[in-house]
Design brief:
This is Putative 4-hydroxy-4-methyl-2-oxoglutarate aldolase. Its cofactor is a divalent metal cation; Mg(2+). It comes from Maledivibacter halophilus. GO terms for molecular function: 4-hydroxy-4-methyl-2-oxoglutarate aldolase activity; metal ion binding; oxaloacetate decarboxylase activity. The protein has about 220 residues and is an alpha/beta fold. It has two domains: about 35-180, Ribonuclease E inhibitor RraA/RraA-like (Glucose Oxidase, domain 1, 3-Layer(bba) Sandwich); about 185-220, no CATH class. It contains seven helices and twelve strands. The strands form three sheets. Strands 1, 2, 3, 5, 7, 8, 11 and 12 form an eight-stranded mixed β-sheet that branches. The protein has a two-stranded parallel sheet with strand order 4-6. A two-stranded antiparallel sheet has the order 9-10. The structure holds oxaloacetate ion and magnesium ion (MG). Magnesium ion (MG) binds near residues 99, 101 and 122.
Length: about 220
C-alpha cells in the first residue's frame, strides 16, 4: 500500500520529503535515464518548487500577423485543472512563451506551476503573483507574431524527455523531472526510502564515520 491516498497527499509528501536528485537516482536505477528536462530550464526564484500533473502544450513557430493570434493558447489555459502543471515546448524559442496574464489565468484555475521550454517576460509582475514559473530566462519579445499553441493535453518531447499528459512533474532548484505515471508509485516509494536513509548517512558522517565506511554500510552517497 502506498503511503498516500490521493494526489493531494502525494504532492504534500513529495514537497515535504523529496528533492529531485534522489528521485532522479531512482529513475536511473529503474533504467529511465532521460527524465530531467534540459538544464537551462530554471526557476525564477531559488525557493520555487512544483509538484503536479503534466498538462503539455505544443507550440510551433509562425511568422507575422495570424488569423488566430496565439492559436489555442487561451483554450489550453482555460481548461487547466487543479494540481496541473502547464508545460509548453516547440519552435525555435524566438520570443516569450509565458508572462503576467498567463500566470494569473493558470493560478486562478488552481494549476500549480508553469514550465516553458523557452523564455518568460513581465518578470516583476509574475514574481509578485508568488506562483512558480520555470523557463530558460527573461526575454520580452512578444509571442503573437512568432508562435502559436497548436495542441494541448497531448504527448510532447522536451530535450530527450517524453512527456505524457498526467505524468508526475517534480521541479526544484536542481532540475525539472518527469516521472512517468506508470512507474510513479514504485519511484516515489523507493525515493522516500532512499531520502530517509540519506538522513541516517548524513548523521553518521557528521558523527565521524568515514564516507568509505558509510558507503559500505548503507550503499548510499
Ligand atoms: O504574450 C505572452 O505570451 C505572455 C504575456 O505577455 C502575458 O502573459 O502577460
Ligand atoms: Mg504580458
Amino acid at each position: 500500500m502506498a503511503e498516500w491516498k490521493s494526489d493531494k497527499e502525494l504532492i504534500e509528501l513529495v514537497k515535504k520529503e523529496l528533492y529531485t536528485p534522489v528521485v532522479g537516482d531512482i529513475l536511473d536505477e529503474l533504467g529511465y535515464y532521460h527524465q530531467f528536462l534540459p538544464q537551462e530550464i530554471q526557476p525564477m526564484r531559488e525557493s520555487d518548487i512544483i509538484v503536479g500533473r503534466a498538462m503539455p502544450a505544443l507550440m510551433i513557430d509562425v511568422y507575422g500577423p495570424q488569423k488566430k493570434p496565439f492559436g489555442l493558447l487561451t483554450e489550453a489555459l482555460d481548461q487547466l485543472q487543479e494540481n496541473e502543471v502547464y508545460i509548453a515546448s516547440g519552435g525555435d524559442m524566438r520570443c516569450a512563451y509565458w508572462g503576467e496574464i498567463l500566470t494569473a489565468t493558470a493560478k486562478y484555475r488552481g494549476a500549480v506551476g508553469a514550465i516553458v521550454n523557452g523564455f518568460h517576460r513581465d518578470t516583476p509582475k509574475v514574481m509578485v503573483q508568488n506562483w512558480p514559473v520555470f523557463s530558460r530566462g527573461r526575454y520580452a519579445q512578444d509571442s503573437s507574431v512568432r508562435t502559436q499553441v497548436v495542441n494541448y493535453r497531448c504527448s510532447i518531447e522536451v530535450g530527450n524527455v517524453w512527456i505524457e499528459p498526467g505524468d508526475l512533474v517534480f521541479a526544484d532548484l536542481d532540475g525539472v523531472l518527469i516521472i512517468p505515471q506508470k512507474v510513479e508509485v514504485e519511484v516515489i516509494e523507493k525515493a522516500l526510502k532512499k531520502a530517509r536513509a540519506e538522513k541516517t548517512v548524513l548523521k553518521e558522517i557528521q558523527s565521524g564515520m568515514s564516507s568509505t565506511e558509510a558507503f559500505e554500510k548503507y550503499g548510499i552517497l
